[in-house]
Amino acid sequence: MESTRMPALFIGHGSPMNAIEDNEFSRGWAAAARDLPRPTAILCISAHWETRGCYATAGEKPRTIHDFGGFPRTLYEVQYPAPGQPELAERLAKLAPDANIQPSHDWGLDHGTWSVLRRMFPQADIPVVQLSLDRAQDAAFHYRLGRQLDALRDEGVLIVGSGNLVHNLRLMVWEDAAFDWAVEFDAQARDWMLAGQHQPLIEYEKLGHSAALAINSAEHYLPLLYILGLKRPEDSIAFFNEKLWGGSLSMRCVRIG
């Protein structure tokens, strides 16, 4: 019998405009989706839901959250009406009891989730649950929590971390460019991932100047640790959208399995 084990993805999501622009990044996400089995559900860990304590969306019809400012009206009109799946939120709590994951009926799908999924699964007909980033916890917690959710892959659930490996908006320039420190950290992280060396990436605060600039406030980096935590020894690892843009933004995406 063929396994239903799903790959897991980290998506470098970049600007919300990627939700409506036809560009190399949005095309890369769509191509990645075409190479996947159809998921039974999608679990997304987005950089844009930071909490104290850990929460999972538990509504039947999660709302589309436009959590940004200064963009064209067209972007605010986008809706991603995917159904929720309260049973999956309950399953998360059972798989990771130490994380004390609580149901949330207030949050919905923020742009870290829907800007990517509308390009990958434009029909919005696959149930989606979001898991928050508990910022009271250290990086090792996020990695371990990813590992605890591994059984979901055997149940056909696509787990997606959405953020950016390099993300420093304070230093960003609006042009096709890449700072040396951003290139350095992006390449070093890639090499560690290929070698299966996750500990340096978990202990990123020890990595020096380039990492400090690249990871900055860390919310865009932490979703990557969930995906690395899901990697089994037999899983392959591959990359797509391997580009730095704006000087300080890595659009690198990672596929496990």
Automatic annotation (TrEMBL):
InterPro entries: Extradiol_dOase_DODA, Xdiol_dOase_suB
Keywords of the record: Metal-binding, Oxidoreductase, Zinc
Cofactor requirement: Zn(2+)
PANTHER family in alphabetical order: 4,5-DOPA DIOXYGENASE EXTRADIOL-LIKE PROTEIN (PTHR30096:SF0)
Any GO molecular function: oxidoreductase activity, acting on single donors with incorporation of molecular oxygen, incorporation of two atoms of oxygen
SUPFAM superfamilies: LigB-like
Protein species of origin: Longilinea arvoryzae
Protein name: Uncharacterized conserved protein
